[in-house]
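Dear colleague,

Thank you for sharing your sequence with our group. We've completed the structure prediction you requested, and as agreed, I am returning the results in plain text so they can be pasted directly into your records. Please verify that the sequence below matches your submission; if there's any discrepancy, let me know and we will rerun it promptly.
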Amino acid sequence: MARTWVLLRGLVREKRHWEGFPEQFQAAVPQDTVITLDLPGNGEFWQERSPTRIAAMVAHAREQLHSQGHSGPYHVVALSLGAMMAVQWLCQAPHEVAFAGLINTSASRFSPFWQRLRPMNYRRLLREAVFSRDTLRKETAILEITSNMRERDFLHALAEKWADYAASQPVSLNNSLRQLLAAIRFRAPVALPDSVPVIIVNGQGDRLVSPSCSRRLAAAWQLPLKVHAEAGHDLPLDAPRWLINTLLEGVTDSSV
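Please find the predicted structure tokens below.
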């Protein structure tokens, strides 16, 4: 039976930041449908006001899917802030989720703030990624913090491409801060619904969010933890083939 995969990106990112990952995923599951979504304040909704609650972001995503004629249950692949949305979705409407892969995420219930956003990045993120008006400098900083396995020349070219995204559909400072507030205040549940298979996926080289956050979620929720030994926070960028295989294995294992 054909499945519908929904890909949710992270803080101040839009669906174009997946780059070639959705196409690679689609090639691996040609019988399925792979969908990417933007959040209010990002991408095609860049002129809208970002919610300060994860639940409101989930409501927006569900409304998008409904308006596009899709119906669940969905297989959700979610990175960072997107994975917080997936957790909220699981708790709010578990019948709409058939599977969830939660990538490099965290929750205040299980991890302190300084592990959810590692202190070594505070100064650079504030100076170059939040308050800087130089979009190339901003995107370069983000990529250098979130990617471990790509060459410098590749990252420089990609930063230029992402700077063009920011020029065409800019995320305002106010929306950036509102999304950050939503992530900070998100409180994960003590347990997830046991009716939905979920896996935690982590890049051991994540320099933005401590890998311990994923380990704590997996332990608290008694979920499988899949770890890439080298990948950074942007695991779909660093190790797309490994991630696709891991997600598909997770779905297969859950159906056995």
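Summary note from our side: DSSP finds eleven helices and six strands in the chain.

Kind regards,
the structure core
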